[in-house]
Design goal:
The protein is an alpha+beta fold and about 300 residues long. Helix content is about 70%, strand content about 10%. Helix 2 packs antiparallel against helix 5 and helix 2 runs parallel beside helix 6. Pfam families: Cation_efflux, ZT_dimer.
C-alpha cells in the first residue's frame, strides 16, 4: 500500500468522524447553518472514497492496454469531487431558502457550537496533512481533497461565529443567511477543483517555472550537442512527461548521441519525480533559431 493510499484511508476515517460530530451539533441546535456544515462533511466522505479508489487505480503499473500508466485516474476523482461539492451547495441553498421563509429560534446553541468547533479543529489538522502530502507526492487527488477541506474549515469557523451572533442578537434570519454564504463558498471551491482537474485531463503544459528549470538542466547536461528545441512537458497525476528535439553534429555516431540523451535524461529524472523523457535526435541542419543552446 502506497503512502498516498494510506493517507486517503485516513481521510475516509476522519471524514466519518467529523460527519458524526457535525450531525450531532445540528441535532442539538436545529441550526440550518450547522446543517449546511454537516452536508459538506457528507461530501468530504464521498470525495475521500473517490480519491481512495482513484489513487489505487493510479498506482497500477503500465500495462499493454495503458502503456503510459494509470496516472490520470486521479483527475477523474477530482472532477467527481468538484461535482459533488456543487451538489452539496445546491442542497444547502434549498434548506437556507426554507429557513429564510420560516426562521426559527435555535436550541442549545453553545453545546452544539462547541461540538462544531471541535470538528473544525480536527478538519484543520487533517487539511494540513493533506496539503503537505499532495505537494510532496504530486498527487492531484490528495491536493484537491486538502483544498476542499480547507474551505470546509473556513466555513466552519464562519458558521460557528455567525450562529453564536444569531443567538446573542435574536436575529433568527441570520442562521439561514449564513448557510447561503457557506453554499456560495462551496460553489467556488467546487469550480476551482473542477477547473484544475480539467486542465490535467486536457494535458495543459507544466508551469513556466518548471519549463525554465528543464531548459536549464538540458543546457547544463547537453555537452556535445548543438542545441535543443520544441520542449514540451505535461503532468499526469504524480508523473511528468517531457519531450524535446536534440540537434547533434551530422557526423556524430549513434552511440555518442545516445550517451548525451542518457545524460540529459538522468539529470531530469534526478530533479523531477516519476519523470518520463522522450528525446528526438536530429542532425545539425535541423537546427532552429528559437532553441536551447548547449555548450
Amino acid at each position: 500500500m502506497t503512502k498516498a493510499v494510506k493517507i486517503a484511508w485516513g481521510s475516509v476515517a476522519i471524514g466519518l468522524l467529523v460527519l458524526g460530530i457535525k450531525v450531532l451539533a445540528w441535532l442539538m441546535t436545529g441550526s440550518i447553518a450547522l446543517l449546511s456544515d454537516a452536508l459538506e462533511s457528507i461530501v468530504n466522505v464521498a470525495t475521500a472514497l473517490a480519491a481512495l479508489i482513484a489513487l489505487r487505480v493510479a498506482a497500477r503499473p503500465a500495462d499493454e492496454g495503458h502503456p503510459f500508466g494509470h496516472h490520470k485516474a486521479e483527475y477523474f476523482s477530482a472532477v467527481l469531487e468538484g461535482v459533488l461539492i456543487v451538489i452539496a451547495a445546491l442542497l444547502i441553498l434549498r434548506e437556507a431558502w426554507a429557513g429564510l421563509i420560516d426562521p426559527r429560534a435555535l436550541d442549545a446553541p453553545w453545546d452544539g457550537l462547541a461540538l462544531n468547533l471541535f470538528a473544525g479543529l480536527i478538519n484543520g489538522a487533517w487539511c494540513w496533512v493533506l496539503l503537505r502530502a499532495g505537494r510532496a507526492l504530486s498527487s492531484p487527488a490528495l491536493a484537491a481533497d486538502g483544498r476542499h477541506l480547507l474551505s470546509d474549515v473556513l466555513s466552519s469557523v464562519g458558521v460557528t461565529l455567525g450562529v453564536a451572533l444569531a443567538f446573542l442578537t435574536g436575529w433568527a434570519w441570520l442562521d439561514p443567511a449564513l448557510a447561503i454564504l457557506v453554499a456560495v463558498n462551496i460553489l467556488w471551491s467546487g469550480w476551482v477543483v473542477i477547473r484544475g482537474s480539467v486542465g490535467g485531463l486536457m494535458d495543459e503544459s507544466v508551469p513556466e517555472a518548471d519549463l525554465i528549470m528543464m531548459r536549464r538542466i538540458i543546457a547544463a547536461n547537453g555537452g556535445g550537442a548543438v542545441q535543443a528545441h520544441d520542449l514540451r512537458a505535461r503532468h499526469a497525476g504524480p508523473a511528468t512527461f517531457v519531450e524535446f528535439h536534440l540537434v547533434v553534429p551530422g557526423g556524430m555516431s549513434v552511440h555518442d548521441a545516445h550517451e548525451i540523451c542518457d545524460r540529459i535524461e538522468a539529470a531530469l529524472q534526478s530533479e523531477i519525480d516519476q519523470c518520463t523523457v522522450s528525446i528526438h535526435v536530429e542532425p545539425d541542419h535541423m537546427a532552429e533559431a528559437k532553441a536551447i543552446d548547449v555548450p
